[in-house]
Amino acid sequence: MTTTSGLPSLATRVGTGFDVHVLETGRPLVLCGVTVPHEQGLAGHSDADVGIHALCDAIYGALAEGDIGRHFPPSEMKWKDADSARFLRHAAERIAARGGILVNADVTLICEQPKITPHAPAMIARLADLLGVPASRMSVKATTTEKLGFAGRREGIAAQAAVSILVPLSE
Ligand SMILES: Nc1ccn([C@@H]2O[C@H](COP(=O)(O)O)[C@@H](O)[C@H]2O)c(=O)n1
Ligand SMILES: C[C@@]1(CO)OP(=O)(O)OP(=O)(O)OC[C@H]1O
């Protein structure tokens, strides 16, 4: 489909993602591709990078291509302790396969501890590198839940993400 000027018509697609993992001792804490010093890490089938998982789901959602569990089933042993960077690279490949461009992504980590803000620049740089986009298109921020609920009790960490993707309007 083209505009009257002959340029291809473009559509903005948005997607959201949400994930939660349990905190436990004896695991490294990997958030948005960065290992963060902390007395506990997140449990999961993979490295349990809750930030990357939410971001992948936002991308898959924007493309209407299911969710991370569809592409990397937790029933498959090959994803045991997998580096979640691999999942995000796959999501980036799906954007490219659709002829799309990631306009921006915004990740919010929800936890009482550790403090995320000091690590946010490294997380933004890592996510941007994995996605092959300038760091200016990425945002990582954090909030507590004012000590309420599982995050407030430091039992787990949640993440939510939103993305905007520009794609050719072909459907
Ligand atoms: N794990 C966290 C949580 C919060 N922050 C920063 O603190 C600010 C205030 O958080 P509230 O939940 O009290 O609103 C928040 O805006 C973040 O800048 C953080 O770095 N790490
Ligand atoms: C990442 C996958 C990989 O098997 O497993 P987990 O690390 O358990 O993470 P989760 O977000 O619970 O599920 C998605 C799975 O695809």
How would you summarize the topology of this molecule?
Layout: E1 10-24, E2 29-31, E3 34-36, E4 41-42, H1 50-62, H2 68-71, H3 85-97, E5 101-110, H4 120-131, E6 138-143, H5 149-152, E7 156-168
Parallel strand pairs: 5-6
Antiparallel strand pairs: 1-4, 1-7, 2-3, 5-7
The chain binds the ligand Nc1ccn([C@@H]2O[C@H](COP(=O)(O)O)[C@@H](O)[C@H]2O)c(=O)n1 and 2C-methyl-D-erythritol 2,4-cyclodiphosphate.
Please tell me about this protein's structure.
The chain is of the alpha+beta class and about 170 residues long. The protein has 5 helices and 7 strands. The strands form 2 sheets. It has a 5-stranded mixed sheet with strand order 4-1-7-5-6. It has a two-stranded antiparallel sheet with strand order 2-3. Helix 1 packs parallel to helix 3. The longest helix is centred in the N-terminal third of the chain and has 13 residues. It is globular, with a radius of gyration of 17 Å. The mean pLDDT is about 95. The protein binds ligand L45E5XJ5 and 2C-methyl-D-erythritol 2,4-cyclodiphosphate. The site of the ligand Nc1ccn([C@@H]2O[C@H](COP(=O)(O)O)[C@@H](O)[C@H]2O)c(=O)n1 has 7 residues, from strand 6. Pfam families: YgbB. Its EC number is 4.6.1.12. Its cofactor is a divalent metal cation. This is 2-C-methyl-D-erythritol 2,4-cyclodiphosphate synthase. Homotrimer.
